[in-house]
Each structure stands twice: as C-alpha cells, then as structure tokens.
Amino acid sequence: MADQTRGAATSSVDDFFRTEIRAGRIERAEVFAKARRPAYKLWIDFGELGVKRSSAQITARYGVEDLVGRTVVAVTNFPPRQIADFMSEVLVLGVPVEGTDEVVLLAPDADVPIGARVA
C-alpha cells in the first residue's frame, strides 16, 4: 500500500475530534463577483448553529441553481476569513478533480439531521 501521508503533516486523532465537521443545507447561493477566482457565496443552515456563510470555488462543476437545497459537509469551527467584501465563516468540503478546475462536494448519501456532527 502506498504511503498516503507523504509530504503531509501528521495529525493526531485528538486533532481530528477537535475539528467540528457538520452537515448543513444550502439555503442561498449567488455568484461572488468580487472574488479573485470564480466562486459562489453560500448561506448554509446548520440547525442550532444557525445560518453560516461560506465562499466556495465550486463554479466549474455546479451552477447556482444546483446548490440551493443541497446538503453539504463543512468545517464549522475554523476562524472566519475575510474574502474581498465577504466574511466566510465555514469551510465547505470537497474533492478536487485532478487536471480540471472542478471540485466535487462531499455530502451524506442519505438524509441526516441538519447540524449533525460528523463522527
């Protein structure tokens, strides 16, 4: 089996469990015209955590109309980041498609409670 950690910093299990990864549902999406690279502004409902904002560079694979109502997985306890005139509060998770600009969003394959933490 190939070494999957080559070049990556090692993290502990404790590091992973401190990272809050939760399911959320996209309520609103719009083109982020002021972003340096093509992106969307997303408003994501995380249940008891409320609606959080995110800037996501997922325009190569998804249109705005494809996103509203979609369940996504995001890190919810990283510090907010200012991106142009928008405060991104969560990091939506996806997998880049090698050789393209596409990012495939990570999502549960069945209905899950909004705001539920990934275990």
UniProtKB/TrEMBL annotation:
<dbReference type="Pfam" id="PF01588">
    <property type="entry name" value="tRNA_bind"/>
</dbReference>
<dbReference type="InterPro" id="IPR008231">
    <property type="entry name" value="CsaA"/>
</dbReference>
<dbReference type="GO" id="GO:0000049">
    <property type="term" value="F:tRNA binding"/>
</dbReference>
<feature type="domain" description="TRNA-binding">
    <location>
        <begin position="15"/>
        <end position="119"/>
    </location>
</feature>
<protein>
    <submittedName>
        <fullName>tRNA-binding protein</fullName>
    </submittedName>
</protein>
<keyword id="KW-0820">tRNA-binding</keyword>
<dbReference type="InterPro" id="IPR002547">
    <property type="entry name" value="tRNA-bd_dom"/>
</dbReference>
<keyword id="KW-0694">RNA-binding</keyword>
<dbReference type="InterPro" id="IPR012340">
    <property type="entry name" value="NA-bd_OB-fold"/>
</dbReference>
<dbReference type="InterPro" id="IPR051270">
    <property type="entry name" value="Tyrosine-tRNA_ligase_regulator"/>
</dbReference>
